[in-house]
Specification:
The protein is mainly α and about 425 residues long. Helices cover about 75% and strands about 0% of the residues. It contains 19 helices and no strands.
Length: about 425
């Protein structure tokens, strides 16, 4: 890793600054330098599939899915906070720790799991990018190919920080959908009533609830954030700041989900409750009568494009990092492609090529996305099981959870796994 990638522990002052400026600006600049891994991984969590699920929730059940979105904030935080401690304290990525603590065969299993999840995520995001292009009359082959080439270029420029900043910019583009919520004129009274009305006896509501909970933690999120804090050179002195980064990201990503729920609850949910909204095109067409054709297409298109690109970037990086760690390959975004990092660069690029080809050959993108969601649900017990085991085994005793905290975090992880598995037979139409 290049020396420039290492972050200073203490503040850095400028000779010409005033005393007040010396106290204020180094802290702010240091915070901006440390923050990033948590924010970008959380924005990636609000991917195309998550936004479609949130929109469907609002359209079918109005404001009743707002409270579950709020309750998902602590689940997001506690799981990703474990990756922060593991990465910073051990200085190793998730795949490397699995290989070290459980042996090469378990490491290989984790690598295969991660690669499947990463390619699956790319399928979902590329399908979303294709849907956005089709809104504006662009062929799928053009939009998907350009997106794949662009994402390959970002990660191979020799700078982790550049890739991180571009990822955050993509993710923050999802906030442009806030004006759509304002134009929809949501009812505060109806929103308040929806917060206390959870129709848990309704099978369709429970299925959507499971979809929302099961999509909270993606397998690639764990590998990404742990690899990112290592590649960024964070130390024990940065743990508290990185926890704040993760907490802010968890709140922000769920705020975006709530915006989607409220927008479609105030529009489709009020006029055509129960409408099926499964694709980007269907979402835009349903929203046009309420906010105008141009506004619906532009706001939804930008939000979905940002969501798809940041998730595709994070998922593919997580996959390449994790596989490189398991097999002991040289890997870092702070190096341009060279002979030492050729295997890492090849895996990263191959994931994009494979994902793009599958999307371009698939005629039914809706069922493709559903298949990916089912696969992620099946992988959750493996991924979260490894995470909990590593937190208990790989960290020094003083850095581990204990007592009530361990019980609470384990319970939340079990809830996520249960909801994810519950969604599988219903999604496949077995019940």
């Amino acid at each position: 890793m290049e020396d420039a990638a290492r972050l200073p522990v203490g503040p850095v002052s400028r000779p010409t600054a005033t005393r007040a400026t010396r106290r204020r600006w180094p802290w702010a600049l240091g915070l901006l330098a440390i923050w990033g891994p948590g924010l970008v991984v959380m924005l990636a969590d609000t991917d195309v599939g998550s936004l479609v699920t949130a929109a469907q929730s609002g359209a079918q059940f109005g404001y009743r899915m707002v409270l579950p979105q709020l309750l998902l904030v602590p689940i997001l935080y506690v799981v990703q906070e474990m990756t922060v401690r593991l990465g910073i304290v051990t200085g190793k990525g998730h795949g490397a720790l699995i290989r070290e603590r459980f042996g090469p065969w378990w490491g290989l299993l984790s690598a295969l799991t991660l690669f499947a999840a990463s390619v699956g995520a790319l399928l979902t995001e590329f399908a979303g990018v294709a849907g956005v292009g089709e809104l504006f009359g662009l062929p799928r082959a053009l939009t998907v190919s350009v997106a794949a080439a662009f994402l390959c270029g970002i990660a191979l420029t020799g700078s982790y920080r550049r890739a991180e900043r571009i990822g955050i910019a993509f993710g923050l583009a999802e906030l442009v959908f806030v004006p759509a919520m304002i134009l929809a004129h949501p009812s505060l009274g109806a929103l308040g009533r929806g917060l206390v009305q959870l129709p848990l006896g309704n099978g369709s509501f429970v299925l959507l609830l499971a979809a929302n909970v099961g999509a909270v933690i993606m397998p690639w999120m764990i590998f990404y954030q742990q690899g990112a804090v290592v590649d960024k050179g964070l130390t024990r002195a940065h743990i508290r700041a990185e926890r704040r980064d993760t907490a802010v990201g968890a709140v922000l990503t769920q705020a975006i989900m709530i915006v989607m729920v409220v927008t479609f609850a105030a529009t489709i949910g009020r006029r055509h409750a129960g409408a099926s909204l499964d694709t980007v095109g269907e979402l835009a067409r349903a929203l046009r009568p309420f906010v105008g054709p141009a506004a619906a297409d532009v706001l939804l298109g930008v939000a979905m494009l940002g969501a798809g690109l940041v998730a595709a970037l994070v998922a593919s990086l997580a996959g390449a990092w994790g596989i490189a760690e398991v097999f002991g390959w040289t890997h870092s975004l702070n190096e341009r492609p060279n002979r030492r990092s050729a295997k890492f660069s090849t895996v990263y690029s191959l994931a994009h090529v494979l994902g793009a080809v599958i999307v371009l050959l698939s005629l039914d993108l809706v069922h493709l996305v559903i298949d990916v969601e089912v696969m992620n649900a099946l992988l959750l017990p493996v991924v979260l099981g490894f995470l909990l085991a590593l937190e208990a085994k790989a960290l020094p005793e003083e850095d581990r959870m204990r007592g009530a905290q361990r019980l609470a975090v384990t319970a939340l992880c079990v809830v996520v796994m249960a909801f994810g598995l519950f969604m599988v037979p219903r999604t496949l139409g077995w019940t």
